[in-house]
Amino acid sequence: MDWPTNRCSCGGAGELAFEVRDLKFAAATAAGRMMRCADCRALYPDRFPGPGALAEAYADYYTARPARTGWRGWLRDLFNRPRRSYLRRDLPSGARRLLDFGCGSGAYLAAVRSDQPGCVAFGTDLGPRPAGPLTFTWLDQEGMEAEAPFDWITLGHVLEHLRDPGATVARLGRRLSPNAGLWVATPNSESFIFRAAGRWARDVDFPRHREVFSRRGLERLIGEVGFYARFTSPPRINAVLNVISTLGMIMRDHEANGLERARAAGAVLTGLAIHCLSPARTRLASAPELIATCRIPPGALPTTKRS
User: Which residue, 153, 218, 157, is CA-closest to 182?
Assistant: First the structure.
């Protein structure tokens, strides 16, 4: 793989947090170093696959897979029942034109079509068009410009993969209709799972996550391109699912010391219990995800201030 140097999007200096490997997909055999930004407290790998190696890093990535059926689909639906608002991505009832930037297989857009049939759904992705028949209108980058404006644009776990997330947010902001907004979800570098599990945390996702944002870093990025953000806490079930995946990472790392892995698993489960029993404000700070609804102040236009 081609591995150029990577840095935090805020430009702050980094200090070593922990060593990382691709435990989830084994797409990369090389190890990396996860750095903690001394300024915004984001986490980021010190190197990242170059353009010629990205296809290998994302081989068989889960976002491109079709929705599960059978007992797995039943189990997914069971977990999804208590988090309907989150899965709808706070889509306003009056929204008529929806764009999912980073749509993957289009699972979210398919759900919107059945739940809010009056909404016209569009999807685009940095990867290829999904295979097979689609329940939404696929747009390439030129088509996205032609179909604007949109009433709601969602970025579900997209920003952490991008080289210039600020420029992307600014560009999408200019494609919004008046009084519209962006919905952003991204991992939280200051979650209880990162504190407890470190390199085994599910959202390390090396070498695909270029930056795991802190709330401070994400809020600053959004503000610098002309938006204000309202943060909400994700459902508790999201933390449970993230912990299950993190425990899988711990069990899968047979090269690590068994006692160290057992301690990390115990710390993760203890952290989950504390998180779920904590008041809403505490959960907002320690949740595995940052959920932000972003809007442009009246009379303002988003700009690009980052390089």
Answer: 153
Specify whether domain 79-295 bears CATH 3.40.50.150. yes
DSSP secondary structure code for residue 186 in this structure: E
31 vs 216, more confident = 216
Q: Which residues pair with 98 in a beta bridge?
A: 121, 152
Mean predicted lDDT score pLDDT of the chain: 89
Q: Rounded to whole angstroms, how far apart are CA atoms 196 and 177?
A: 42
The average pLDDT across 195-222 equals: 96
Tracing tokens 């759900």 back to the chain, one arrives at 111
Q: Do residues 82 and 235 lie in contact, with contact meaning Cβ atoms separated by under 8 Å?
A: yes
Q: Under a CB-based contact definition with an 8 Å cutoff, are residues 287 and 239 in contact?
A: yes
**Predicted pLDDT of residue 84:** 80
pLDDT tens digits along 55-112: 667 766 666 556 666 766 667 677 777 788 899 999 998 899 999 999 988 989 988 9
- What does residue 221 show for φ and ψ, rounded to 5 degrees? -60, -45
What is the 3-state secondary structure of 141-163?
Answer: HHHHHHHCCEEEEEEECCHHHCC
Token readout for 65 is 């897979």
Domain ranges of the chain: 79-295
Sheet containing strand 228-232, edge to edge, reads 137-138, 120-124, 97-101, 150-156, 176-187, 289-295, 228-232
Distance CA 42, CA 281 (A): 20
